[in-house]
Design goal:
- By secondary structure, the chain is an alpha+beta fold.
- The protein folds into two domains: 52 residues, 2-Layer Sandwich (GMP Synthetase, Chain A, domain 3), CATH 3.30.300.70; 38 residues, no CATH class.
- It has two helices and five strands, in the order ββαβαββ.
- A three-stranded mixed beta sheet has the order 1-2-3. It has a two-stranded antiparallel sheet with strand order 4-5.
- The mean pLDDT is 86.
Length: 94
């Protein structure tokens, strides 16, 4: 759970090979809501957000890169290259 201003957010990211659509997010959100409401795990008021990791997904392993061949990815660097630290590029196989 993350605090953003005065509000708390519980963010859940879902994924599947063929991609995520709004219906998937709605279905998972409804199921999670039911479980959380019944179990009453969280004592603070919060907003539940269910989404796909999308372009912001973290790619740490070679298999992550392979799974995202020909997809658009966001690249953030610690040190700039030609005065730029953030790029959005399509991945490709070498």
């Amino acid at each position: 759970m993350q605090k953003n201003g005065k509000d708390y957010f519980l963010r859940v990211y879902i994924d599947k090979e063929e991609g995520i659509d709004l219906n998937d997010c709605e279905k998972v959100s409804n199921e999670i809501n039911e479980i959380l409401d019944t179990a009453d795990y969280i004592d603070k008021q919060y907003f539940l957000e269910v989404s796909s990791p999308g372009i912001e997904r973290i790619l740490r392993k070679e298999e992550h890169l392979e799974q995202n061949i020909l997809k658009e990815v966001e690249i953030k660097l610690f040190r700039p290259i030609e005065k730029q630290k953030q790029f959005i590029r399509n991945t490709y196989k070498i």
